Amino acid sequence: MKTLDDVVDAAAEALAGGRRLLVMLDYDGTLAPIAPRPELAIPAPGATRAIDALVQAGGQVVIVSGRGAADVHARLGVDSVDVVGSHGLELWWASGARELVEGAEEARETIAKVEAAWRTLASARPGAVVEQKPFGVALHYRLVERGGEALATRASEIALAQADVRIKSGKCVVEAVPALRWDKGSAARLVLRRAEASAEAGVHAIYVGDDLTDEDAFVALRDRASTVLVAPDDRASEASARVADPAQVVRLIWELAALCDRDQGRLAGLP
């Protein structure tokens, strides 16, 4: 797989040709190290400063997360980024505009039933954590000592007994979401189309993510973007490049900010 330097070199060539930089970033495991509980996941050191520097230098930054948009926005504290939350169902633009994918609002009642059933299931399993989301519910089993996978299987069975629900799996987490034909890949394509519509010389897109749900975006953006997997070792992935961890993601963002800002000279140096 390609490396961080390869991704930066491709961005430098694109910017030299006048293209605009669009950087899409997952949150958990990408900007924030994976935490034992979802509420403990905070941005890696320097992440918010790097994002702000990239935006100030002219890059567009979009956070694409399974978390609710409001949650991500509060954790980053950067008003100048767009946030695509709930696996693409919520679109919060830096301009202040808010959008929901059609059908998301109608699915709340069904998701609430799944949440109630999962809370009952989790109450008998120490370490299991149920996370309520605006348009989904997640069951985290990272802290379950034994039988976590079996718990996830049972939770999936309970959720799929409801109509109009589908299951997403991640790192020690299973999530029930509305059964809409929409995911991170769909959202990433929408973001890219809109960016291209306002960029005369074109857009150079980069998508960075670590989880199984990010594979949807890697596939959707194949041949249209630099796709970067965050993982300590090579693994099967549709991404074209890899960085090791959130610290390297922060480094990548700083490198991109420096590229965008090279002519203005506002960045004195990389941290």
Q: How are the strands of the largest sheet arranged?
A: 5-4-3-2-1-10-11-12
The total count of strands amounts to 12
Task: Detail the poorly predicted runs.
Answer: 263-270
Given the helix and strand composition, which structural class is it? alpha/beta
Describe the model:
There is one protein chain. By secondary structure, the chain is α/β, with parallel strands linked by helices. It folds into two domains: 4-101 and 182-260, 3-Layer(aba) Sandwich (Rossmann fold), CATH 3.40.50.1000; 105-178, Alpha-Beta Plaits. It contains eight helices and twelve strands. It has helices at 4-16, 47-56, 69-76, 108-123, 148-160, 184-197, 214-220, 246-260, and strands at residues 20-25, 60-64, 82-85, 90-92, 98-100, 129-133, 136-140, 165-170, 173-178, 203-209, 225-230, 241-243. The strands form two sheets. Strands 5-4-3-2-1-10-11-12 form an eight-stranded mixed β-sheet, with helices on both faces. A four-stranded antiparallel β-sheet has the order 6-7-9-8, covered by helices on one side. α2 (47-56) packs parallel to α8 (246-260) and α4 (108-123) runs antiparallel to α5 (148-160). The radius of gyration is 19 Å and the shape is globular. It catalyses: alpha,alpha-trehalose 6-phosphate + H2O = alpha,alpha-trehalose + phosphate. This is Trehalose 6-phosphate phosphatase. Keywords: Hydrolase, Magnesium, Metal-binding. InterPro entries: HAD-like_sf, HAD-SF_hydro_IIB, HAD_sf, OTSB-like, Trehalose_PPase.
